[in-house]
Amino acid sequence: MEQIKNWFSGHKVIGGIVLIFAIIFIGKAICGGHGDCMGNNLPKDTITFTGKGEVVVKPDIATVSFGVTAENLDVAKAQTEATTKMNKIIDLLKTKGVAEKDIKLTNYNIYPRYDYLQAQIYPYTGKQTLAAYVVSQTVEVKIRDISKAGEILSGVGEFGVTDVSGLTFTVDNEDEEKDKARDLAITDAKSQAKTLAKSLGVRLVKITNFSENGNYPVYYEMNKSMALGMGGSDAAVPQVPMGENKITSNVSITYEIK
User: Do the Cβ atoms of 137 and 106 come closer than 8 Å?
Assistant: First the structure.
């Protein structure tokens, strides 16, 4: 009888130890195993501030596209005519100081154009006939001497340009200007953080998150209708306003506070 009592007594002790370890294990599992239940990794108090930075710069590059077309029933002749026109334009650009690396072919198309002829008597059936092959070429040009932009726009009209579009003024070192705008935005956000923290009576501990929106340039773009129709030996050289480019950055900074 005494042996049975001792057996149960010993196993109660072992059972109690096992139960204690089980409670500890379950507790850690519920708390994530990192002591969250002790308050060590509870969500921190944070506050977010936004800042804005703007940089206004004068453009130093003009970008514009020129297009020519030619039509002929002989596709080879249409190609030759379009190429001749474009070569004259490129020669003009080079005489105005545009480097070859700044002249890029962006479009070259060949397609048939058809006329539809309808019979004048019953049953009035129609017939589609080939009218010509159309060849079109477009080049994009960077004009680094902006003072010659108007002169170039006027000059290319002599060589059969059918389309002038996309005249924009940009900044060559745009990344540097973006960095400046971002720095201003960060300074703005930090300044607000210090001011508000003082007013609220809290302490800024560390930055826990950063994000940026914007950081985009606002370009001046010449309306297409202003460019079309320019040209001819007697054409007046247009005055092309360059305006100013604005580069904007918006940032958000989140601080842990105590």
Answer: no
